[in-house]
């Protein structure tokens, strides 16, 4: 019952040197860890060396279709995109062929959001994919986390660990789908698409007014973790959508009304820019520091402990931790 492949994902594109480590493989879940992405000739020139503040990022628009398929052998971006765009889903058949799967079709089993980095789980075996999906669904109903994210936040949560609960809904605002919190949702609200969401968090390290946080979502909702951290007044570093909802006056943070707050580039204070060695224009391109670090998969037998898959932090993420003096244990 093999056919399960693990690939890595990077924000906004593909990055060099991506590796994924899997703990001992359980029978029935054959995994393949792909290491050391070697980018071949790009169809467009890259930025000058002095204008690359985020090491490890590659831009998808610099690849031809053939180059993209080649890169996807080692790194994948899970994006549906618009019709005609080069995305993971649009080239899955060619990726399956390049991996020697013949007529077996790859399908996405689990992945982080399109702006986050981390693990992407693909399967070419329908039976394996079904078993994995059932495992994730059962774990979610039992309130057992199967995914652990690492995040760097602008701000430090008040408590070192806890849970975040919020009712969320998707709204179409100015041509963009945005997550909006709903206070005291009614039964009608729930029937109309409002979902009660839950995440666990634990602060791993703090420094320079920022925090390294482990996040475990126990529900599934678009941009759930970004929305949850904004509600904690500690938006994720590089969140250019929901960070604008957090205002500050004389050092005191507060939530701005969602109705009057439009998404905009995250604004960092001068002290933080200095620690990160970034100019304001570079900070406007700061990647989202949200990384799907760990996934639990079912063991070979029902009573076996879960198998753990780990993805190392991206280069730009590690650089940020070093600049801020944050140490990941």
Give a written overview of the molecule.
- The chain is an alpha+beta fold and 329 residues long.
- The chain has 8 helices and 13 strands.
- Strands 1, 2, 3, 4, 5, 6, 7, 8, 9, 12 and 13 form an 11-stranded mixed sheet that branches. A two-stranded antiparallel ribbon has the order 10-11.
- The longest helix is centred in the middle third of the chain and has 16 residues, at 126-141.
- It is globular.
- The relative contact order is 0.17.
First-residue to last-residue Cα separation = 35 Å
Number of strands: 13
Q: Using the CA coordinates, give the radius of gyration.
A: 20 Å
Contiguous low-pLDDT stretches (5 residues minimum) are 1-50, 74-79
Specify the helix fraction band: 10-25%
The H/E string reads: EEHHEEHEEEHEEHEEHHEEH
Beta-strand fraction estimate: 25-35%
Number of helices, counting only DSSP H or I runs of 4 residues or more: 8
**Could you say which overall geometry the principal axes of the C-alpha atoms support?**
globular
Largest sheet, if any?
11 strands, mixed
Q: Which structural category do the helix and sheet elements fall into?
A: alpha+beta
* Averaged pLDDT: 79
